[in-house]
Amino acid sequence: MNRVKQLLLGLGFAVIGMSIVALPVAAAGYDSTTEALIQSLNLKLLYVAVPITILVEGILIYTVWRFRNNDDPKPTKENRRLEITWTVATAIILLFVGVASYQVLALPAVTATPQVTDSEQANATEVTVVGQQFLWTFKYPEENVTSRGTLVLPANRTVYLNITSRDVIHSVHIPELGLKQDAVPGQYNLLRTTPTSQGTYQLYCAEYCGVGHSQMTATVKVVSYDEYQQWLEDQKQSQ
Amino acid sequence: MISGLTPLAVTSVTTSVALTVSMGLVLVAMIVWLARVEDIRSYVPASDIGGGAGQTEYGHEEKPGGITRWLTTVDHKDIGVLYGVYSVITLAWGGLSVLIMRTELLDPPATLIQSTTYNALLTSHGITLLFLFGTPILAAFANYFVPLLIGADDMAFPRINSIAFWLLPPGALLIWAGFFIPGIAPSQTSWTMYTPLSIQQPSPAVDLMLLGLHLTGVSATMGAINFIATIFTERAEEVDWANLDIFSWTVLTQSGLILFSFPLLGSALVMLLLDRNFGTTFFTVGGGGPLLWQNLFWFFGHPEVYIIVLPPMGLISIILPKFSGRKLFGFKFVVYSTLAIGVLSFGVWAHHMFATGMDPRLRASFMAVTLAIAVPSAVKTFNWMTTMWNGRLRLTAPMLFCIGFVSLFIIGGVTGVFLASIPVDLVLTDTYYVVGHFHFILMAILTAVFAGVYYWFPLYTGKWYQRGLAKWHFWLFMIGSNLTFFAMILLGYAGMPRRYATYNVDIGPVAQFTDLHQVATLGAYLIGLSGIIFLWNIVQSWLEGPPVQSSDPWELAEDGLLTNEWQWFDHQRETAITDGGAESEETDTDTDDNSEETA
Ligand code: HEM
Ligand SMILES: [Cu+2]
Ligand SMILES: [Cu+2]
């Protein structure tokens, strides 16, 4: 039994070591409120899941190694209590996953609902995102500006993306901001977030939409509020 | 295509209607012809089964020889072999198509093939492996072994059994038609066939594919009805529900799932065909809406993933104890968990649609059921592991593949739980992470298939496979699978979307993508190599392998684990010896002693 314990302890450390090395995502810092919420949830799940996975795989390998060509096999004895224990244990872990996920899910930065207060709306930037084979168009209805292929957003302000499509289903996918929402024709889907660091990010189309699917990308620029205003002016001028 | 009818669209509509109708006629004609073939009508099933019951007056000489035997057989074992051979062919095409795609993905731009070709291969790969390989290979095992395990003479409806199989080859031809009919582009809908894209694609190959899918669905449904009837009514007297073997339980549950899900897919396919060709609006914007297709498709699609995983779980539950020298731990709980999965699998379909903008409250309840379905899956895993604990493990090829199954299934299950968590799914859905998740499970399914092929190889060939090659097969397969699909998990975390023919993006981490894609491709080549070794081993050993010397080749009797099918085998061998080798197997005199294999 002692050997088992040592083995498990060793595995435990190996896991923690590995998760630190293998998770550059976690170290990179977050670029939007949405990403922060989702990635810290993901990290929480990983801290539970990776040790469990390695533990179970470890026990599997240990079992094989220990009992291969074993001269003294014991007949199978049913054990109800063991069955109930692991059923309940699994259920509890999954309950934890459910509760943790639900708490994050209920937040507006993850699930945006159309009902928002006027004061929130007043300061927010609204953009209509339209997918069309194989191009993204970004409309700023309040400013009467339309931009193709580039989405410019002010940092540290609430942003609403109203997403739709003109033809087939596409999907807005900005992994570095933790954003994904399908663009479905005949329907508007809402995303809400606050970009927190300035920079340039990749927008991909994540729903297979035909021959140009993998070329249907766009640029997302998160800039300071002043730069954002300036950009809007420039756009108005050139349109 | 429906509203603005340009001349081009009109011609394409008429060609596709014409093709659709004529293919339909060809199919009907084939079925009529099949039903009329004299042999099928007058043929008496060779019921040489019965194990202990022992009523074996019909000899093999009743079977016609050569190709006619295989075209007209209604013997469940022959049909099992037909399913098996068919599945090997489809597996080969599925594997080849993906190797071309993986080679293309070695570098970011489109260098080897164009995006259209990539998308066509992508579509064919998914559909081939799920519909033309996944379901049929399991039918191969179920056909051959369920009647033997439950002590039935044959399937309840042997002729329906034969028809169900013979619907598959035309199904495959229709699904692949776009690749060999000159002048039409292969279908590029992806396996999920999301509307409106699948309505919009003009090629008649899409219609042919939908017809082919419909046929395979009819085939699967007929098979399912047959299995249900067989397990309910054809069991030998001593086999009751309490001691029905675990593989038959999973086949029964699987058949139930097929019965409730495939007809729905069939209807949805017909509606899609109508939308494409006759201007109906089931799945169009302003009609039923694009999400109606997704709801119908996944109401079928999620049970489908359990349709292809339950019988492999049954195979593991039946084979793994044999080489652990003890009975399956928690038999009852394994059966309960099978039934639980069967029921729950109809309540989780919307977890494939978390990003479509569905009602948030509804979404949360689908998350809950999805998490719940992980419980019975975990229970099974723990039962397999406890079966091994304190046992006497013999690391033969079938056992190695059983262990491989458990190890891959653990990773597949855990990655699935992340996807069940909606916020996490929102960043990972439609990325390579999802591809990684389900391939861990699909690779597990393949290991179960290999375990079954090796375990029963002595039974259906009377020969031994080559032990060394089988081990090479195993290790290459495991290393390849882990490399490929672990790389995909990481690709998904890095944001790489799935179904991308190219990835030469401006801002995204192209260098990281490239490295991971190259690792994935390397792994895929290893899997491909393992497949060639497998094929060689099976074919060569079947033709020239050393004959089995005992009717208990795995020495199961001493552990009290000899199941019905080996008793049938024993009986079979005795008859073969007394009536002078009706199996037409020249009994080799220079006997290789293969008892080593079991050690
Ligand atoms: C532990 C149990 C499992 C859980 C919690 C789970 C969860 C999920 C979820 C939530 C998705 C949707 C991901 C997305 O598209 O965003 C998914 C996809 C998928 N799962 Fe699982 N899964 C489990 C087991 C299985 C099994 C047993 C199979 C059997 C083959 C399977 C095959 C698939 C397939 C094929 C897809 C992708 C479908 C597609 O989009 O093409 N999963 N899984
Ligand atoms: Cu796309
Ligand atoms: Cu599912």
UniProtKB/TrEMBL annotation, chain A:
Enzyme class per UniProt: translocase
Membrane topology: Multi-pass membrane protein
Residues that span the membrane, as ranges: 45-65, 86-105
Chief site of localization: membrane
InterPro entries per UniProt: CcO_II (IPR045187), CcO_II-like_C (IPR002429), Copper_CuA (IPR001505), Cupredoxin (IPR008972), Cyt_c_oxidase_su2 (IPR014222), Cyt_c_oxidase_su2_TM_dom (IPR011759), Cyt_c_oxidase_su2_TM_sf (IPR036257)
EC number: 7.1.1.9
Gene3D superfamilies for this protein: 1.10.287.90, Cupredoxins - blue copper proteins
Domain Cytochrome oxidase subunit II transmembrane region profile: 15-112
Keywords assigned: Copper, Electron transport, Membrane, Metal-binding, Respiratory chain, Translocase, Transmembrane, Transmembrane helix, Transport
PROSITE patterns, per database record: COX2, COX2_CUA, COX2_TM
Domain Cytochrome oxidase subunit II copper A binding: 122-234
Subcellular location: Membrane
UniProt cross-references to SUPFAM superfamilies, sorted A to Z: Cupredoxins, Cytochrome c oxidase subunit II-like, transmembrane region
Record-stated family: Belongs to the cytochrome c oxidase subunit 2 family.
Protein's name in the database: cytochrome-c oxidase
Lineage: Archaea, Methanobacteriati, Methanobacteriota, Stenosarchaea group, Halobacteria
Gene of this entry: coxB
